[in-house]
Amino acid sequence: LLSAILVSFSTLVASDFWIQGPSHIRKRSTGDNVITNGIEVYSLKIDCRVTSRFAHNVITSRAVNRANVSQEIFFDVELPKTAFITNFSMTIDGVTYPGNVKEKEVAKKQYEKAVSRGHTAGLVKASGRKMEKFTVSVNVASESKVTFELVYEELLKRHLGKYEMFLKVKPKQLINHFQIEANIHEPQGISSLEAHGTFITNDLQQITKTTFSGSKGHVSFKPTLDQQRSCSNCSTTLLDGDFTIKYDVNREIPGDVQIVNGYFVHFFAPTNISTVPKNVVFVIDRSGSMYGRKIQQTREALLKILDDIKNHDHFNFILFDDNIDPWKPTMVKATPENLEEGKTFVKQMSSRGMTNINDAVMDAVKMLNDAHEQLIVPEKSASIIILLTDGEPNVGEYNTDKIQENAKEAIRGRYTLYSLGFGSGVDYGFLEKLALENSGVARRIYEDSDSALQLQGFYDEVANPLLIDVQIQYPENEISDLTQNTFKNYYDGGEIVVAGRIISNDLNTFTANVNAQGANDILTYPENISIAEREEAQKQQRSEEHT
């Protein structure tokens, strides 16, 4: 189901929407003298319903054209990168028009033709970072009303110990009825709930309401017209920024299995276990394109990261341009003396030369190999490579397919490689594949004033490994369409999620066995669940949600 929805979303964002409105609504005047103001957005509501980490969000915007001529009304929404759109419609003067996907050029021509005739029509596009911006404009007659309704869904990810729901708030004008409302239902019980906005003042903080009890939580934010004003007599709004809802659930047991209509989702997030020592090699691009603020922000982030490295960890740096320069010949323990020496090395980093990614990664792998073979690092430890680059390989081996092949063959599943692409000049597809083929992920580091915080934030996610070589087993010949069920590392504050389909009609008890290496011993987490009892409990849960 998720794959089908995601495929349809990919189709949506690759094309445009064409929405033909009623042809009897016409302009009251022609020519270029179209009034640009006079549009009143009198209602904007964001309704969020979260059940077992799955969010169903509805954004409804209502506007009226107060001008005496026909003009365009715009509806812009920035969506989370992991979200997928499930429905969009416009209602004009009480008549609803659902969106239909057309090819881009066809949609644009039909839209322009309709507008030139004074008809009401809409054109919808998706754009922005990873297609996260959804935009529609519609031409409406004088005194006509239009309602936009966008529905999108997403599976919330646990990040640093909290599930996060991110909403972009940017109405661009004062709105008579503005509200954000979220209802959360988690069968395990909610342990914490908070809501923050980057634009929220002390006064607005008072009307940001969060309550939770048992399995239910509620968030509301409903500022009055006066509370939205950027100053007491201003006609501009201060609602411009991010509104984030964070929560977590009770964890009396490390796992939770949801079973609905023959499908299951297994959430696994153990707590209260010792941290596994880690061995991290920072592979840092110092080529000429890193000159200036990039290298400065990289230094700043690495200095803060060194403050956070645990004393049972091992670390090293490899700087690369045309040449490959390691800080030390092998991994070193994070003693106070080594950390101070490492800071001195980081402060002296400067940019020059070209970009030899292949040899830098190969040297990092060899460094970890030698450390394990010579017993420099603990046998039971997590070894990771963090590659940071702002460009494409252009010296040495610069065929990206060959670099991927070399890295995969050298690592052989023993270590995790993370790729950080700094700025817009990187081949992100290459970095992403390089990481995914070696149990890691890629992350964009946007070139901005907060780049150092972005780098440090990524490190925080992998700073505390709790388990290595995680394997989750389910009943053989009873399960199909299984998602990834082996993981190189599990980090504190994260969550492992596995989904699949139960194909046996005779299966009464669902079993899941998690085996992993902990800091000291091999750990096992068995789960046995009555399918009938779990499905009945979830039917009751859905019934409660509608009361």
Task: Explain the overall architecture.
Helix content is 23%, strand content 40%. It is an alpha+beta fold and 547 residues long. An eight-stranded mixed beta sheet has the order 6-5-10-3-2-13-16-15. β25, α9 and β26 (442-445) form a beta-alpha-beta unit. The two termini are 27 Å apart.
Question: What Rg do the Cα atoms give?
Answer: 27 Å
Which stretches are poorly predicted, pLDDT < 50 over at least 5 residues? 1-36, 126-131
Helix content: 10-25%
Major sheet description: 8 strands, mixed
What form results from the Cα inertia axes?
A: globular
Q: Give the distance, in angstroms, between the N- and C-terminal Cα atoms.
A: 27 Å
Please describe the topology of this protein.
Elements: H1 2-14, E1 16-20, E2 39-51, E3 54-65, E4 71-78, E5 84-92, E6 95-98, E7 100-102, H2 104-116, E8 121-127, E9 133-140, E10 145-155, E11 158-159, E12 162-169, E13 177-185, E14 190-197, H3 202-206, E15 208-213, E16 216-221, H4 225-228, E17 241-249, E18 255-260, E19 263-268, E20 278-285, H5 293-308, E21 314-320, E22 324-326, E23 332-333, H6 336-347, H7 357-373, E24 382-389, H8 400-411, E25 416-422, H9 428-436, E26 442-445, H10 451-462, E27 465-473, E28 479-480, E29 486-491, E30 496-502, E31 509-517, E32 522-530, H11 531-545
Helix pairs in contact: 5-6, 5-10, 7-8
